[in-house]
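Milestone 3.1: sequence recovery, worked example.
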């Protein structure tokens, strides 16, 4: 699941996006799922993947808090 999610996030980042955009897109939970903790899980997951992308050179921070895949 993790490699598939990572690939989906890279594809999503073809356009400049923020972590808030990624949270709203919902990569972990389906959009209709409403849990009190869903947004925090989405944010943590997105942050971990973006950090990995930056370290691997797969994405860049084009403006403060805005990321785009290479």
């Amino acid at each position: 699941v993790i490699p598939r999610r990572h690939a989906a996030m890279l594809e999503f980042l073809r356009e400049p996006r923020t972590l808030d955009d990624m949270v709203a897109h919902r990569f972990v939970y389906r959009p209709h799922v409403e849990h009190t903790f869903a947004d925090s899980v989405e944010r943590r997951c997105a942050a971990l993947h973006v950090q990995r992308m930056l370290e691997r050179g797969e994405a860049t921070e084009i403006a403060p808090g805005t990321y785009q895949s290479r």
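The mean pLDDT is 95. The beta strands are 17-18, 59-63, 66-69.
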